[in-house]
Structures are given as C-alpha cells and as structure tokens.
Amino acid sequence: MLSFIRKKTKGTVAWIIIVLIIIPFAFFGIQQYFTGESNIVIAKIGDSEISKNVFLQNYEKEKRKLQERIGDNYNDKIDKLVKSNSLNALITQNLQKNQAKKLSFVATNKELENRIIKQEVFFDDDKKFSFEKYKQILTLNGFSIKSFEKEEKERLVNSQFRSMLAESSFVSELTLQKLLNIKNQQRNFDYITIDANDFLDKVKVDEYDIKNVYEQQKEKFFEPAKIKINYVELSVNSLAKKVKFNEQDLVDFYEQNKNNYLFEEERKAAHILLKDKKTAQKVLDKLNKGQSFKNLAKEYSIDDDSSQKGGELEFFTKGIMVKKFDEVLFSLKPKEISKIVETEFGFHIIKLLDIKPERIKKFTEVKNEVKEAFQKQEALKEFNLLSEELANISYEYPDSLKETAKSLNLEIHTTDWFDTKGSTDSLLSNPKIIKASFSDLVLNKKENSKVIEVSNDKLIVLRMKDYQQKRQKTFTEMKGEIKKEIAIKLAIQFVQDLGEKIKTTTNRKDFNNLLSDNNLHVKKSGFIGRLNEDLKPEIVNFAFSVSKIKNKKYKGSMISEEIYGLVKIKDVKKGKWDEEEFKSFKTSVLNAENSAIYLNTLRLIKENTDIKVFSNRL
C-alpha cells in the first residue's frame, strides 16, 4: 500500500522547535455524581472550583489510557505525573473558561447544534445525524443531554478564545523569506574531527594519581546493599494457559460474542498524486473529458509506488490513510472520481475501485482469537477468586512461600541480585517491587510481603532469599575504572590542545605534518543542508553555526564532550524554495507563534489569578 501517505509522525525542521501544547484534556466522562466526594473541593481558580469527583474521573480516564499503552511499565512515578497533569489540565480549562466569560464570549444554540450534528460518532448507517444514536452514546459515556451540551458550549467558547489569540499573531513576508533562506541554506566545507577516544594511547596515567583519586573520592566507591527475592506470581496470562476447553465451548463463546469478530468495510482506491494544484486541475479536466484514469496516473502521478499500476492501491479500512484522503474515499460511490483533495503530501485525485462490505468473520477464520478470548475470560474469573486466597494464605504462613505456592499451584521464582535502584528486568524495575523488597516487613522481620498489584491482571507476593550489606569497594576493584576516567580527561585535554594548534597553524607544511603525525585527515562535505544525515550531526551543526570566514581559515571548538571539530567554510548557497514550501513554512511558523501567544497569555492569566490547591484532599 502507498506507504508515504499513511498516518505517521513526520519529522520537523531541525533548527526550529514548535511546541504544541494540547490543553485541556478531553472532557468526556467528567460530570458530577451524587456521592459524598462530589462536594469536596480540591482546587479554587478565582471564582470557580474543581471538585474531587471531577478530578478523579479525569485522572482515572488518563490513567487507563496510559496503562493500556505501557502495561506493566506504569509505576508510581508515572502515576504522580498523570495526577499532576490531570489537575493542571483542569486548572487550565478553568482559567480559559473564566477569561472567556470576562470577555463575554458566548456560544449560541445554533453554533452548538452545528457542532454536534457534524460529529461522525453520532451518524447512522446513512452517514446522517441520528438523535437516537446521540442519546445512546451519551448514556454509554455517563452523560445526560443537558450536561453534554453544557460541556460542548464550553468547548465552543474556549475555541473562540483561542481563535481571538490566533488572530493577533503575525509574521512578515520578509521575515519568512529570511528564515527560509537560513533554513534551506547549503554549505560546502572542509572538516577535521579529533576524537579523544582515539588518543588514549597518547596519555600516561600515574599510579599515584589513581590512588589519589581513590582516596579523595572513597565515599563514592561503594557497592550498595543488594537483595535476592523469592516470589510467586498470580496472573491472568498464566492462568489462561491452564484453562481446559472443548470445541463446543469455543463455538458457544463465538456465538455469544459474534459482534467482536467483524471484518470492517475495506475500500480499494486508485489515486493520482500531483505536486501543485494547477497540474491537479489540468489532470481533473482531462478526466472529466473521459480520458483514462490509469493512463493519466502513469503520466502525471508523482507517487512512484502506484503510478505504474495506474494509481492502484491496496484494500484498506477506514482510518488507515491521512484524514482528508480517508474522508473523501469513504464518501465516494464505486467508480466515482473525487474532486482535488489536498493533504500534506500534495494534491490527490481519488477513484474508488471496489468495496468489501463489513461482515462477521466465520468461526473457522477466528478460531485462535476465540480460543484466546475464551481462555482469558475464564482465567479472569479464576484470577478474581484466587486473589483473596493468595492474600489469606501468604498472611497465614508468613515464614515461607511454599504453602502459598502449593495451595494455588504456583511456581516459586528466584531473582538475581538487585539494589534499591532495581535492575533492567521489567519486574525488578517496578517501584512497588523494589519498595516491598527493602521494606521492614521483608528485610528485617523476614516475612512475606503483602500482595503487590503489579498491574490489573498480575499480583505478586515476595520474600527475601538472601541479602548483602552495603560495602566499600577496594582499590583493586576500582583501579581500572578510575584509570580509564583519568585517561579520557587527559585525552580530552590533549585533543583540545591539538585542535587549537592545528587551527592556528598557518604554514601548509606544518599543518600537513600535524595531521600526518596524528593520523588525521581533512574531509570534504560537498554542498549539504542543515538536515544532512550522512555526516555526524555535531559537525553539521558546528559548520552551520560559524560565520563565513573571508580568508577561509579553520574554525575549531569542542563540538561534543570528547570530540574537537575544525571547519573551513568554502562556499555558501542561498536557500531556495517554491510557493508550496513557502505556504507550508508560513503555516508552521504561524502555528508556533499562535502556540507561544496562547501559552504566554495563559501564563499571565495564571499569574493574575488566585489559585489554591488543597493537596491533602487529592
């Protein structure tokens, strides 16, 4: 399938960083429940308040999303960050809302109606707004119509606030041209790199210096306390492997869950990709006069992957291609040709070739999926039953894991040594496991730990197997490491001195001798741009940071911690661009300007708003 128009993250211009802050978090699921916590205020932002219930729902939603993405890697540190981000998002939301209110921004009922009826999530099979589906989806998400429409109006008002700020951003054409000239500039230069690691044999490290460093920094050279643990693990995955079943069990499960096994509708398209709109219109006119789509694709399309196949692509489901392409394709009828569609890749003319309608997969097609789902369902039931037993037995028999393992048919595992920083092992990098392993209960009382919830479907109980006290490392143990540290420092000084000497040498013969004696060579870049990937980024960045020297002398500096770089600029070409690149660049710069204005405005509003956070209520 056409690879370069699929959804993917695109690289940005290396010399300009555009920070896009998406604030606030999505509002879905945020509403007041009739519980005791709904009246607990955790933050005051001016005259508005954030209830604990609203915060918890926002936090839990973001937590679930992240846990789905990173699984067992979700830990206490990440959880604190999620809590902080959730609260900050709600504070920002309230700051915006309060400011919009001061500026008398309002959302009319007509604007609200237009916003809602255009949301595809509420469309029926005919791709029209369905009030019944609207009510159904709101109910599933815990909304009443009134509460949802209130949220939507707030979003509209916030949108007006951002639009107002966007209108104040401005970048002159002259500034854009200067920036583009710098961005697209090319340079031709000679360069030399001197890496300290290549000169370690040029430096001598005295035994006295090694001993001196050891004695002066002795407090650093300790091996931390370490522990080995035994543990039992109760997990849905391990239980699933033990679930017994027959063919009929799977068939029954399949029949009960048929809707989970859908083949989504797939569409096969052909497209002609053009660089500019003028050419695209020319091709579209030819198509409207009856010329062959295949022939025109072969002649005009700049998509090398598909052009020689008459623009033909593979079958794909909705959401695979970039949004504009996707929306147009899934609105076409078979054999229908679209109008011109602009995406970040150029201008497309799309033809719908074929449709594979949505259908339920046959049991034989999804037997393995059904088997896994059935096993997981049964394992989850058993997991919920055994969880309580795990806690009870490990508590009743605190001096060993044997009884727990025997009663629940679990295996006792043993880890390698690890300290309070954990290890690269996924289990031993979990803060909950590390904390429990070095707890008073496990370390000093030598009892089983409490049940540790590593994830929603995995529980651990552990105990100490062996322990090693913190100890001072001997000079013999540290000698090699210290020697290497001293050597690299001396080598860095050596290459810096050598680089400075080469830079200031004007005699050609002396210059060549210095290079020859140190096995160094002058390399030529040819004309390259700032984003060149063939050379080391350090030397490219340095070459584009120096001013053009009239007498073409070398300029040198440490370009990284261990590398000295020398550059001689030979020639510079002005940057070039076409109209499309200028438009795209202008959009990027304006977006950056808009974001900067928005963030600065929020900062000023925040500084001038009385904000109180009651951390003890979180």
From TrEMBL:
The keyword Cell membrane applies. GO terms for cellular component: plasma membrane. Residues 264-354 form the PpiC domain. One of its GO terms (molecular function) is peptidyl-prolyl cis-trans isomerase activity. Keywords: Cell inner membrane, Cell membrane, Chaperone, Isomerase, Membrane, Transmembrane, Transmembrane helix. The keyword Zinc does not apply. InterPro entries: PPIase_dom_sf, PPIase_PpiC, PpiD_chaperone, Trigger_fact/SurA_dom_sf. Gene3D superfamilies: 3.10.50.40, Porin chaperone SurA, peptide-binding domain. PANTHER family: PEPTIDYL-PROLYL CIS-TRANS ISOMERASE D (PTHR47529), PERIPLASMIC CHAPERONE PPID (PTHR47529:SF1). Belongs to the PpiD chaperone family. This is Periplasmic chaperone PpiD.
